Every structure is written in structure tokens, then in C-alpha cells.
Amino acid sequence: GAGVSQSPSNKVTEKGKDVELRCDPISGHTALYWYRQRLGQGLEFLIYFQGNSAPDKSGLPSDRFSAERTGESVSTLTIQRTQQEDSAVYLCASRGVGNRVRGYTFGSGTRLTVV
Amino acid sequence: LAKTTQPISMDSYEGQEVNITCSHNNIATNDYITWYQQFPSQGPRFIIQGYKTKVTNEVASLFIPADRKSSTLSLPRVSLSDTAVYYCLVGEDNTDKLIFGTGTRLQVFP
Fold first, then answer.
1. Residue of B46, B87, B92 with shortest CB distance to A42
2. pLDDT digits (tens, 9 = 90+) for A11-54
3. Of residues B32, B96, B100, nearest to A56 (C-beta)
């Protein structure tokens, strides 16, 4: 598609439930990133995919967080047994082969609220 | 990636020029300076990048002194639609991930 698409745009879930967040990157973009942004804060790096492999998972905050990617397409971020501190906007970005630092295209994010 | 320091917030009025300065004392030889802009309820987007001296595009100008320990993003004649958070990032141009600080929240008033 023309941009990075994320779904759902908003998600309210009860504490302890599992959630799945989806990211559709720009077609042909090999690199895909997940970031978390708490209210009023900057972006916190979670995980990076190159193709369907994840060379950098250093930002995942706990083993309740996992992510996968199918080929060079859709990625899913899963949060198990959600906690209230997981409430945030989860942003996905994709990037093509060239234009490293300037080449990120972000989606509009999924706003997750854990009640 | 080099640590950056920028003001938490700034206020301005429509039509004024806004200058946001970022400090990056530990910038390395291969590092570039990149600015991203984030509107409410959207992801960040690239606005400008430079290595030294001055860079200008249709959106902004970026001024970088000779020692490169700081940089200034200049927005000419801001409008209400320039209300956003502006992030300064410093790192190699071929880095695999961006590290964002807390940014500068610019509020433009009528």
C-alpha cells in the first residue's frame, strides 16, 4: 500500500488478556520496526526485523512481548497477560533498502489501553 | 548513538521563526544529524538531515557549527499546523535503528 498500515487503531483490553497488534509495511520494504510510545514520552525501540528474521530484539521489555513477521510482509506484535503499564501507543515503521536514517515511514500506531 | 539534549517545550506565534537547538557533545565523525517531526496521533516523519554547515529544504533549515556539538532546526514563519514534537537524532547514516529522545514539543498560537 501507499503507507504503513496498523490495526486496530485503538484497543481496550482487560488486564491479563492477550492482545495482537498488526502492521502492514510498505510493499517492498525489507526492514520493519516496532516502537512503543507512552503518553508524553519519546519513542522506545522494541524490535527490528530484516526480512523475517529479527537481528535485534533488545528492546522487548519482557518475555510477555513477542513479535513475528511473515516474509517481508505483515508483522504481528503479541503481548501476553497484559498489564496496565503496557498501555501506550505502539508504532510500526518500515524502511526500504536505501536511505537508512531518513527512510523510515511510520504508521499511525495502535493505542492500547489496559484496564 | 550519541546522546542528545533539547528543550522539552517551546511556544511561538504564527508567522514567527522558530529555532530549536539540540546539543550532542559526543557526536562522532561518522554521525549525521537528523530531525523528525511528530504530529498528534501520528508516527514521526523525516524532515531534514545534515552533516555540517547548513542544509535547507522546503520545510526547514538546519544549521550546524564547525565543531558539530550542537545543531539548530529553524522553521520559518510557523503556522498552527507546525504544532508538533520535534526529535533530534544523531548517529551514523547507515544505522539500523533510530533512538528517539523525548523531543521538543512546539506549540504555535494564533
1. B87
2. 999 999 999 999 999 998 999 999 999 998 889 999 999 988 98
3. B96
